Amino acid sequence: MTLVVMLSGCTFVRTVGMKWANSDIEPIWQSQQVSTLLNAYFEGEKSYLYVDVDGHRLKLLIDTGASFSSLFDTPKVAAMRLPRQAQLMIGGWGDEENSLAYKTQVGVFDLGAARFNNLIMAVIPTSTSKYYLRDDEATFDGIIGHDVMRHFAWTFDKAKKQIVLSQRAHSPQPGAHEISISRSLSKLKISAQFQLTEAHTVNMPIVIDTGSRHYLKLSARYIENHKLDMGRLVNAADFGLSGKTQHQRGHIKRIQIANLIVPNVKANFIPTEDEDELWIIGNAFLNQFVSTIDYHTDTLYLQPRAQAFQSRYNLSGLELRKLRSGYFVVRAVAPRASNIGLKVGDIITKVNNQDTPKLTVDDWLNTSNEAKQHQLCWVQSPLKQLSLNDPQCKTVTFSDIPGFNVAL
Question: pLDDT band at residue 91, thresholds of 50, 70 and 90?
Answer without folding.
Answer: low
